[in-house]
Amino acid sequence: MDKAQATEVERHLLAIDDALRKASAAIFKLDKEDRQPFVEPLGDLGSCLHFKMLELVYAYYPELRRSGEPLTISSELQWKEVTLPESVSEADLDAIIFSKLTPQLQKTAMVIGKAMADCREHGLPVEAEIIGARIQALAESNRIEGMGDLRQWRHSEVRLKS
User: Fold this and answer.
1) Is residue 69 included in any domain, yes or no?
2) What is the pLDDT along the chain (162 residues), one digit of tens a residue?
3) For residues 5 and 129, what is the distance between their CA atoms, to the nearest angstrom?
4) pTM above 0.90, yes or no
5) CA–CA separation, 154 vs 107, rounded Å?
6) Shared-domain flag, residues 98 and 146
């Protein structure tokens, strides 16, 4: 595949992404009962598009990637290295994280940000890196679904298990 072909493939894949966003918006206007059958397949389509199809194009031609920012690891902290403050239990942290997850894939960074806001609101002294490490551990233990390298918060996504 030459660069012109890769550019054409990327253009069509991005058009699909735009259509998926519009379909997702329409689906999420439905009543919960009516939208439920769409949630998992919609997430699967988005994951395949972003983490397989587009990544194949970018593997050949990384300069086509739109973000312009390199994929960087946000944190190397592993859950086994974490010592929680005495005022915070693992169950407390899990409850906050799970309350921020949905069946729809969300950027890991967004989930961490929402969980951080909840921690601040409840006076829990928890850093973003700890939340990120816990999300990664939850995905590794198959309690939630993660797409991409979860150490790269802005370039990975998480959701509730379906």
Assistant:
1) no
2) 999 999 999 999 989 988 888 887 788 788 878 888 887 787 778 778 877 888 888 888 888 887 655 667 889 999 999 999 999 999 999 999 999 999 999 999 999 999 998 998 888 999 999 999 999 999 999 999 999 889 989 888 999 998
3) 40
4) no
5) 6
6) yes
